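Figure 2 data, in text form.
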Amino acid sequence: MPLNRDQNLRYARQILLPEVGGAGQEKLLAAHAVVVGAGGLGSPVLLYLAAAGVGRITVVDDDTVALSNLQRQVLYDTVQVGLGKASMAAARIDALNPEVRVTVRAERMTAANAAELLAGADVALDCLDSFGSRFTLSDACAAQGTPLVSAAIQGFTGLLAVFDPASGGPCYRCLTPAPPPRGGNARACEDTGILGAVAGWVGTAQALAAQRLILGLGDDRLGWLTTFDGLTGTARRARLPRDPACPVCGNR
């Protein structure tokens, strides 16, 4: 549908961009993004997707707000400690942009419900902090042909990649074939620490990547891995090839 007066005003600054314009804004308004994880990465992701006018957002998270979250999970307020993240995220999105339709799924994504949670999605965003859940989400996206924007953070470091095997790019298992063993090098931020602004930096880049996919901009679908270094304020981008031996998207 054509943009109305309020939409032209709300999104005026991005409509001015030749790469977006009115047609691009209509694509954003018609898009459905599924955000799995509403924590440190999910906070900027949800805010920027809603502000940009992504018309439908599904928030998947079964956790509650904790005081220790607030240093990096800027979606929440102190008075919301103990309340469900997905519901609080939906309320914040509604306050920011009431025309965005938010679906709250206060549950953990599993192999049993992944297909249903991703139904109709134009893009999925991995804002998780668990390897097992990442693999579940990635495998489901590969099976359904849903592009996946995945990010991870630890300490001063962040990683960002787009996985879209349906377009010829790699999947998550091309980068990491299997979850690391328990007690291996993978550790949660409660063990290693995280600077809050790193989550904001990487999550914002993740939201931008999702918007590029919706708008058909850039070459993210081909497979790129971006590494962020918060100590130096730099980022490096390297091509991530598809693994012919990948158990999910390889040549079998």
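Caption note: Residues 196-215 form the longest helix (20 residues).
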